[in-house]
Write a structure and sequence with these properties.
Elements: E1 8-13, E2 17-23, H1 49-67, E3 74-84, E4 92-104, E5 107-118, E6 124-136, H2 155-162, H3 167-173
Antiparallel strand pairs: 1-2, 2-4, 3-6, 4-5, 5-6
Length: 174
């Protein structure tokens, strides 16, 4: 995974819950396109809702991967529902709170909430809720074989996992 939409894992309840945060900065290129200054008015940079959804998917994916010690190639299979009812602007922090609803050999289902912290008006504000389903790629029914290397939980994820100690689960399986 090349693009990371979370900065750090801040809570982990093994087998149950994972919380991650993302600090939104004007230094991020995507903010300059959403929405630039023009004849209609001044710039109004916001983090696109699709990237908020991706951050929730990455958080939930780490949680699902941790259930099996990151041995499985976990991929997002389905967005069951997603509701994002607010915006994130530079200088704000996003919190992704994911919980496992169901888990078996084929994959897992998660639910999560997305909150925003505005440092000018401190306090968490609910932005949305997301339900996701993940599949264990190596257990797919197509019969297709995938490389042994785990391309889902690559080096970028290992860096994030080091901040929480979850990297020991990855190391234990290598």
């Amino acid at each position: 995974m090349r693009w990371m939409w979370i900065d750090s894992v801040v809570e982990h309840e093994p087998g149950r819950r994972l919380v991650a945060v993302k600090n939104c900065s004007l230094a991020e290129e995507h903010l300059h396109d959403h929405f630039p200054a023009g004849p209609e008015g001044p710039a109004d940079p916001v983090m696109p809702a699709s990237l908020l959804l991706e951050g929730m998917a990455q958080t939930s994916g780490i949680l699902v991967g941790s259930l099996g010690g990151f041995r499985e190639k976990v991929v997002l299979a389905k967005i069951v529902s997603a509701s994002i009812e607010g915006e994130v602007r530079p200088g704000q922090t996003v919190r992704y709170d994911a919980v496992v609803e169901q888990h078996d050999a084929a994959g897992a289902a998660t639910k999560g909430v997305i909150d925003r912290w505005d440092h000018r008006r401190p306090g968490w504000v609910r932005l949305g809720a997301v339900e996701l389903v993940f599949s264990h790629l190596d257990r797919n029914r197509s019969g297709q074989k995938f490389p042994e290397e785990n391309f889902v939980f690559g080096e970028n994820f290992r860096t994030i996992l080091q901040t929480t100690g979850l990297d020991r689960l990855v190391s234990a399986r290598d």
